[in-house]
Design brief:
Largest sheet: 2 strands, antiparallel
Number of helices: 2
Helix content: 25-40%
Number of strands: 2
Distance between the termini: 58 Å
Order of helices and strands: HEEH
Strand content: 5-15%
Structural class: alpha+beta
Oligomer: single chain
Length: 65
Amino acid sequence: MTTDYQLWFRDPRKVIHNILANPDLADGVDYIPYREFEDTKRRYGDFMSGDWAWEQCVGVLTRQR
């Protein structure tokens, strides 16, 4: 019972570099967490609009030591 598989690998740093260097994506990447509201209702759009991203960047500033 032996099965051969092909494994494809790309260097993650090069992949990220290529994504960030792509001018077609320049306006579509959020680098800073944000919270967006419509009336009084919270809108979620992508990863950077979520609570985890917000807490990782902003929560550090508000926690007491």
